[in-house]
Amino acid sequence: xxxxxxxxxxxxxxxxxxxxxxxxxxxxxxxxxxxxxxxxxxxxxxxxxxxxxxxxxxxxxxxxxxxxxxxxxxxxxxxxxxxxxxxxxxxxxxxxxxxxxxxxxxxxxxxxxxxxxxxxxxxxxxxxxxxxxxxxxxxxxxxxxxxxxxxxxxxxxxxxxxxxxxxxxxxxxxxxxxxxxxxxxxxxxxxxxxxxxxxxxxxxxxxxxxxxxxxxxxxxxxxxxxxxxxxxxxxxxxxxxxxxxxxxxxxxxxxxxxxxxxxxxxxxxxxxxxxxxxxxxxxxxxxxxxxxxxxxxxxxxxxxxxxxxxxxxxxxxxxxxxxxxxxxxxxxxxxxxxxxxxxxxxxxxxxxxxxxxxxxxxxxxxxxxxxxxxxxxxxxxxxxxxxxxxxxxxxxxxxxxxxxxxxxxxxxxxxxxxxxxxxxxxxxxxxxxxxxxxxxxxxxxxxxxxxxxxxxxxxxxxxxxxxxxxxxxxxxxxxx
Length: 480
Prior knowledge:
There is one protein chain. The chain is built from 22 helices and five strands. The chain has helices spanning 22-28, 42-45, 49-68, 80-91, 104-119, 149-156, 183-186, 195-201, 207-220, 225-228, 241-245, 251-263, 269-288, 313-319, 326-338, 343-356, 361-371, 377-388, 403-410, 415-420, 430-438, 458-470, and strands at residues 8-12, 34-40, 74-77, 95-99, 123-127. It is mostly helical. The chain folds into three domains: 1-129, HUPs (Rossmann fold, 3-Layer(aba) Sandwich); 131-160 and 196-288, Serine Threonine Protein Phosphatase 5, Tetratricopeptide repeat; 299-470, Orthogonal Bundle (DNA Cyclobutane Dipyrimidine Photolyase, subunit A, domain 3), CATH 1.10.579. Strands 3-2-1-4-5 form a five-stranded parallel sheet, sandwiched between helices.
């Protein structure tokens, strides 16, 4: 027997989990019925091809988990406010709960929805859950926000993080469930075309898989994390990014696991915690400086003469992983096959595009948004601007990564390159061949093709970049 016969709506977005879910816990308070809802509005529909495919798989797994608890996931398409109001009318719900998002479009939408629902007498409440630290909690001594990571890290590293919330053992539903769209009718994977079948081999969605991945990392990987995380040819990272993106695991769960490992003496635990904070810092910047998503964070870079033609032949070669620079091409192909890219690879390919090819970071940011299953607006924007020199990096903008020396340092035995580049190998591995199974047929690529010569060599690219920088007047160094 519930204390309140009126149900609560749980509006799900990037929080497809049951455990450590503050909005879900609040919705369940008092034993009332809960109606979990996911809305495909314009913002969700605008996701890139790989991210939208991964969203569909995550929703599929989460819906099955809800059914195990006697609940179900209601799917609706349309403007979020209109959908929520319709569901309130249909079900008699008097409360709507959701987890906060922090990008400008989501904040504007959510503020409008909260205001409209409260005006109707509906209890509309948002909760933390996507971050460890809300963006307004970390402030400088003068009351502003942090613009450099190191002082941000010093500020939050000892900040208390709340204990985990348990998952509900049961999830009471309403006497009559509202109608739901069918997930397959949304065709969330359509833009992936034949690449969807390839992505499927490299993805293991869902909360249970996320927890298992964290457990394996803590048990067998975190001790060597600091030593191994920069080497893309070995499994040296946590592999949690896509799970954090969709909220299939909470950052608090990852943080507490890392803290326990640190207390147990794991050598890489501090570095792991720092990387979690780097993710937080990206959202911190986006919240306070939302222009980082569209314009140069350092305003003096707005006039820099980058190439802006996303279809230029050299840019196309970069997108296709056919620059003739093996480390760059291996990373681009890894992303196209798996929907993810090793962080060392991300730095190298971003530096190559923005410095060797002198092309705008927005071109790369948009391509990643289309190809990454772990796409996050804040991390993607900050990462690209960090590499381009226009973002929050204490290192001088004229740093240019040399992909050849990077390969010698981080892929000395060539394991990473061999895993992803089939051309020239007598018996290439499946990972390398899967690239040609995933690429659009119009690209007309084959593993039998000769591997291309470099479109821009490492030395020539560095010379081009430094020459361009020397000829530009950036004015006084500044930040947003």
